[in-house]
């Protein structure tokens, strides 16, 4: 059924998009019913409460200083990524992670990796559907903004893009597919993943989206 357990650390910050981090967290939470060795938790700069999008406040389980052991580190998107792109403490923390730790993102979380140069020579994706501001002359579609931030990155329009150590997912709800793919990268068999999707009553959507994937 599996190779081993898997620990996902999710970075939370001011104005992080809720579904970006809650969807992959939820996938692993349900999968944990089938294998208790799975784990997902929130990581922030400090252990203070973090106000994410729309005022939803969460309490991280770990701070950067505690250096939790994890197999993957996820950066969600949201309005707050505009500040996180220039957050030197976050960048130093990411660079301190062992090479064995996957670097993953949902939506505009990939902007952070792009600003750090970690997407150079790789394929990556981002949200393709703009909100009203992004669709106006005052904004830019997030996937086009990624191309501007990381000109050496090959932009993909797939829902999930696996470029080895770096895995990126598109817009908000694609965090579901990212969660399922992380189970795959952790070594779980397809039957296990399909069972998780069934329990979540997501099996029909899973069948539709599972092929919207690029392995680069």
TrEMBL record:
| Cleavable signal peptide | none
User: Which CDD domains has this protein been placed in?
Assistant: GATase1_PfpI_2 (cd03139)
Pfam families on file: DJ-1_PfpI
All residue ranges annotated as the DJ-1/PfpI domain in the record: 10-184
Q: Which GO terms describe its biological process?
A: regulation of DNA-templated transcription
User: Can you name this protein?
Assistant: DJ-1/PfpI family protein
Which species is the source of this protein? Paenibacillus soyae
């Amino acid at each position: 059924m599996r190779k081993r357990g898997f620990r996902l650390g999710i970075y939370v910050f001011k104005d992080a998009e809720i579904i970006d981090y809650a969807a992959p967290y939820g996938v692993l939470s349900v999968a944990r019913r089938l294998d208790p060795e799975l784990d997902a938790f929130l990581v922030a700069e400090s252990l203070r409460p973090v106000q994410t999008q729309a005022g939803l406040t969460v309490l991280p389980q770990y701070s950067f200083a505690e250096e939790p052991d994890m197999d993957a580190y996820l950066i969600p998107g949201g309005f707050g990524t505009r500040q996180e792109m220039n957050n030197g403490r976050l960048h130093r923390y990411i660079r301190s992670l062992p090479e064995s730790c996957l670097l993953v993102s949902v939506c505009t979380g990939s902007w952070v990796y792009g600003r750090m140069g970690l997407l150079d020579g790789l394929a990556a994706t981002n949200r393709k559907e703009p909100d009203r501001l992004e669709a106006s002359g005052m904004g830019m579609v997030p996937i086009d903004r990624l191309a501007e931030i990381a000109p050496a990155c090959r932009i993909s329009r797939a829902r999930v893009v696996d470029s080895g150590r770096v895995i990126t997912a598109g817009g908000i709800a694609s965090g579901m597919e990212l969660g399922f793919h992380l189970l795959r990268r952790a070594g779980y068999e397809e039957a296990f993943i399909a069972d998780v999707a069934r329990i979540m009553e997501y099996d029909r959507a899973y069948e539709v989206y599972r092929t919207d994937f690029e392995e680069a």
